Amino acid sequence: QVQLVESGGGLVQAGGSLRLSCTASGRTFSSTGMGWFRQAPGKEREFVAVINRNVFSTYYADFVKGRFTISRDNAKNKVYLQMNSVKPEDTAVYYCASGKAGISFGSHPGKADFGSWGQGTQVIVSS
Q1: Is the CA virtual torsion 48, 70, 112, 9 positive or negative?
Q2: How far apart are CA 32 and CA 48, in angstroms?
Q3: What are the tens digits of pLDDT across the range 62-97?
């Protein structure tokens, strides 16, 4: 079981930037895809971005394309979400998730494809 801890959330003004980090424990980090999801109050948890173990393979939700970038550092067991040009609608709790073994992610991964989740980090974007 992979343990995930997110950090980097906070309050940011619209148009600003924020970088979220997720630190994973466990020896399987480099062999699995990693994703970011978010959940706004009263809404379902939704997919934001995913990066396969091959770091050149990434996918994004349409609403963050061109603004957010997912990356990973397998040597440090970390995955990042760089958030630029943030909008008030980006306000949510952001969760890091570790993909289940053997899954190569495409453009629309579901929550069931991920086996471990972090506790979440709050992002608030003020207008």
Answers
A1: negative
A2: 17
A3: 999 999 999 999 999 999 999 999 999 999 999 999
